[in-house]
Design goal:
- By secondary structure, the chain is of the alpha/beta class.
- The protein has a domain of 289 residues: 7-stranded beta/alpha barrel (Alpha-Beta Barrel).
- Helices cover 52% and strands 12% of the residues.
- The strands form 2 sheets. Strands 1, 2, 3, 8 and 9 form a 5-stranded parallel sheet that branches. A 5-stranded mixed sheet has the order 4-5-7-6-10.
- Helix 1 packs parallel to helix 3, helix 12 packs parallel to helix 17 and helix 14 packs antiparallel against helix 17.
Length: 439
């Protein structure tokens, strides 16, 4: 029997409004509320809601045999709660079926894993807490922003207690190996890796409605034949894609929902089942270690981090942002911390890409700016105001040694408070037992 593992990404950033140099110091609100509401409302109407309804019907019709996983950024969840709460309700109902798994990721869909482990760990925990609070489930599998992965990131995920990580089945990493197996992290062998089959995934995400594609039209029967015809010893096909593939990137008129709905029945005929990532990890042994010295991703032809850090503009902006991370973490200012999270979304750097050809066209499609330089200028104006606010609380005249000493003091104080609270709790429990025994 072969297994399909479906995973869908849902992410929306808080997009920035047009912020001029002269706004610095005068305006501390950075977001384009109208654009944010209109975009997520449109995508929810065309994609999220009908796709979630379709998945619910598929789970019911297959008696729970159809299973999927979602990774949802905290910024997307916040916007859904504000603008389209019915999507949250659909996700809650799916969570109750036991056929849907939620993965952990960075709260802001950020690049923190490449710059700051403390910030990375904090954001992942924020996302886990958000998932638990909304859906009552605790993620055990991790997927990083845009599947950015390396040995170092694998080690960090292992230290956080994850059982597995979702990664891209990039050719320059796998070489002759197939993505249709479970692997393990070379730097932390107990951590299992699920590698995306990018060909089968992109057949749905990008080629489904392309009438010039030699396999157009793509039917559920044809697609499941391809899965069934993979080499006999390759038992797993990982299909990872953006959830807005359904209804947004591939319109309803293309037949994408009918295609999706027909998959379980076509799979059952061919003895193909569906499992969530945690089930795949539990049910399969790793066949080999995978070593990834330099970060890879699922973006663009290079499958590396150049979509966000490929030019000087992007590197300067990201470097400037993360240079103040320790100062920001000292703050207890709610607005400052909220802006810190929102400004880390990788989308801001994606808009600054200066790539050309097909990759450049994709970047331009998603960008609300006229040019990468416009995106850079707008972001740096916002960041300039944000840094001024940080410096007002923790001046940049404090050198690193003083800052580290201050951080150590704060951490020690927190540890002492936790210790005293624990001891107080024990004393109270002991007192209650004494009173009860006296009765």
């Amino acid at each position: 029997m072969k297994t399909i593992c479906f995973y869908f990404q849902i992410h929306q950033p808080f997009r920035l409004k047009r912020y001029r140099f002269f706004d610095i110091g005068c305006d501390h609100y950075y977001y384009d509320d109208f654009n944010n509401e209109s975009i997520i409302s449109r995508i929810a109407e065309h994609s999220y809601i009908p796709a979630l309804q379709t998945i619910s019907e598929m789970i019911s019709a297959s008696n729970g045999k159809f299973k999927v996983a979602f990774s949802i950024s905290g910024t997307a969840l916040e916007q859904l709660e504000i603008y389209v709460p019915e999507v949250i309700e659909h996700l809650r109902n799916l969570a109750k079926t036991g056929c849907v798994e939620f993965l952990a990721e960075t709260y802001a869909h950020s690049l923190a894993s490449l710059y700051d482990e403390a910030e990375f760990t904090s954001q992942v925990q924020m996302n886990i807490n958000k998932i638990k609070n909304l859906f009552g489930l605790t993620p055990t599998v991790f997927r990083n922003t845009e599947l950015i992965y390396s040995d170092e990131i694998g080690e960090m995920a292992h230290r956080m207690g994850f059982k597995g990580v979702i990664a891209e089945g990039a050719k320059h990493i796998l070489g002759w190996k197939s993505p249709n197996y479970v692997y393990s992290c070379g730097a932390a062998p107990k951590l299992k890796l699920l590698m995306r089959n990018f060909k089968f995934s992109d057949d749905i995400s990008f080629r489904f409605s392309n009438q010039n594609w030699n396999n157009y039209p793509l039917t559920a029967d044809k697609y499941m034949d391809w899965v069934a015809q993979t080499p006999e010893n390759e038992k797993l096909v990982n299909l990872f894609m953006n959830f807005d593939t359904f209804g947004e990137m591939q319109s309803k008129e293309s037949g994408i929902f009918d295609f999706l709905k027909a998959l379980p029945q076509c799979a059952e005929i061919r003895d193909i089942d569906f499992q969530t990532p945690s089930e795949v990890i539990k049910n399969n042994q790793a066949v080999d270690n995978i070593y990834v010295m330099h970060p890879m991703s699922w973006a663009d032809e290079e499958r590396d981090t150049s979509a966000w850090l490929g030019n000087r503009l992007q590197k300067d902006a990201a470097g400037k942002l993360y240079s103040i991370s320790e100062r920001v973490r000292l703050s207890h200012d709610r607005r400052l911390m909220q802006d810190w999270i929102y400004l880390q979304s990788s989308d801001h750097f994606y808009y600054m890409s200066t790539k050309h050809s097909s990759d450049g066209a994709v970047h331009s499609y998603f960008s609300p700016y006229d040019s990468p330089f416009d995106a850079f200028t707008n972001y740096m104006n916002v960041l300039g105001d944000f840094i001024d606010r940080v410096n007002a609380q923790y001046p940049d005249t404090i050198d690193n040694e003083e800052l580290n000493a201050l951080l150590t003091t704060i951490y020690n104080q927190d540890a002492k408070i936790n210790q005293l609270e624990s001891e107080l709790k024990k004393l109270k429990n002991g007192k209650k037992k004494t009173v009860n025994s006296g009765d």
